[in-house]
Each structure stands twice: as C-alpha cells, then as structure tokens.
Amino acid sequence: MSSTITDVKAAVEAKQLRRVYQSAGREVEALKSLDLDISVGRFVAVKGKSGSGKTTLLNCLGGLDSPTSGEILIHGRPIANLSEAERTAWRQKEVGFIFQAFGLLPTLSAYENIELMLRIAGFPRRERRPRAQEVIKMVGLDKWANHRPFEMSGGQQQRVAVARALANRPNLILADEATGELDTQTSYEILDLLRNIVQEQNVTILLATHDELVDGYVDEVLQLSDGRIVQDAR
Ligand code: ADP
Ligand code: MG
C-alpha cells in the first residue's frame, strides 16, 4: 500500500541511532543506540548536561551531520543514508534551525537575513519579499525589518532567527540552546513565541537546553545522559 505524508503520524523517528566521533586517536560515542518517536505538532525539550549529546542528536536529525549507524525518519522519509548533496537539498526545504548565538549575518538587515535564507532554499523571487515580511510580522518585528543585528537586543536578534527558521515553511524546527544567551525574561518571551508557533502552524520543535525554564512550555521532555535517553516524560 502506498503511503502519503498525511498517513505519517511521527514527525521524528530514530532507531538505534549511534554517532561515534574519532578524536585524537580515540573514539567518543556521543549517541549510544538511541530510539525516538515524536509525533507531529509537539514542542519537545531535549535536556541534559553539557556533553550529553544534545547537539549531536539535533545535527543528525536535521541532516547537518550523519549518524555512524541507525535509522532516521523525518515525516516518514529516511534521511540517514542520503548523500551529502541530497541531505543539504532536503534540509533547506524541510528543516529550520535556530542557534544559541543567533547566527545572523552582521552586515545584512533583519529582512535581508531572511530573504537570503529563502533564496538559498530556492524560493522564487516574487515569493521572497511577501514571505519575509510575513514571518517578520509573525515574530513582532515589523518595525525592525531594516535594522542590522548590532542595532537590536539579543531577544530581538533571536526573534529574527526564529523568523528565518520559519521562512521556508519547515515541518521541523531544531533549536539548539536557543535561549542560552538570553536573560530569564527574554527567554520566556522566546519560549512563548515557539509555543505559539507549534500551536498555530502544526510544526514540531525540538529545543535542546539545560535550562529548567522550559519545563512549563513544552509537551514533552527527553532527558539525555551520556548519549542515552534516560527519561521520556510527557
Ligand atoms: P551537548 O550538546 O549535550 O553538550 P554534544 O553533542 O556537543 O553534547 O557532545 C556529545 C559528546 O560528543 C561530548 O563528549 C563531546 O565532547 C563529543 N563531541 C561532540 N562533537 C565532537 C567532535 N566534532 N569531535 C569529537 N567529539 C565530539
Ligand atoms: Mg550542545
């Protein structure tokens, strides 16, 4: 029987996922045979101490890295064994990333940072301007579209990064320590924004963090310790 995307209930599935790094002649097993099953439209925190494997997991799920072994299905599509070029093309269409240090290009305005992402994702020229304006509005920064990152607060810069992650209409957003450089109040604002995005757009968000702040915002917590999931709480 053929399956279509509407049959797919899982946003993210991983089976026996392993990632071993070679480092200075020794092996570091960052992910140790990890299994995952996350439904569509969930806001999930990936928690764990520094070095527990959060970044490695997100990078593998989003196609920035490939696992040493194991399977990854994103909306039913296997991605672990794609070639580098296939993975990049897939990622640019399907995944949005948000990073701790915002990752905005300093010489470009908020609008231009987002427009560039749309260009990279292959959006036709005539769709880029309205879509960039739409996502800037979604994050409440209409008046800041023409400002460059250094003219904005950390919270505003992270909002631009959230808008950029949304721009290509991804089904999956991966946020690595997205509140890591923000003060408590600003972290709450970003968490609120992410929560609203999950509710309104049916996207799935995985947020890696070691911050207790997130507990009241997420649907689910995956606790990582030394490359294993030690607790899966809903
Ligand atoms: P976290 O994001 O939870 O801090 P990481 O995924 O960054 O954890 O790291 C998990 C483990 O893998 C750590 O032991 C780390 O030192 C190791 N590691 C991460 N990246 C590399 C790399 N590029 N080369 C070698 N070891 C790495
Ligand atoms: Mg990390």
Describe this structure in words.
The chain contains 6 helices and 10 strands, in the order E-E-E-H-E-E-H-E-H-H-H-E-H-E-E-E. With 234 residues, the protein is α/β, with parallel strands linked by helices. The chain has one domain: 3-Layer(aba) Sandwich (Rossmann fold). A 6-stranded mixed β-sheet has the order 6-7-8-3-9-10, with helices on both faces. Helix 6 links the parallel strand 7 and strand 8. Helix 3 packs across helix 4, helix 3 packs parallel to helix 5 and helix 4 packs across helix 5. The protein is globular and about 50 Å long. The mean pLDDT is 93. Magnesium ion binds next to helix 1.
Summarize the structure.
This protein is of the alpha/beta class and 234 residues long.
The biggest sheet amounts to: 6 strands, mixed
- What CATH architecture do you see? 3-Layer(aba) Sandwich
Tell me the number of structural domains: 1
The low-confidence runs, each spanning 5 or more residues with pLDDT under 50, are none
Structural class: alpha/beta
Write the CATH homologous superfamily: P-loop containing nucleotide triphosphate hydrolases
Report the bound ligands by name, code or SMILES: adenosine-5'-diphosphate, magnesium ion
CATH class: Alpha Beta
Report the sheet-strand fraction.
Answer: 25-35%
Quick check: average pLDDT? 93
Number of strands: 10
Rg value: 17 Å
The first-to-last residue Cα distance is 32 Å
CATH topology: Rossmann fold
What characteristics describe this protein?
234 residues, Rossmann fold, 6-stranded mixed beta sheet, binds magnesium ion, 32% helix, alpha/beta, globular, 29% strand, binds adenosine-5'-diphosphate
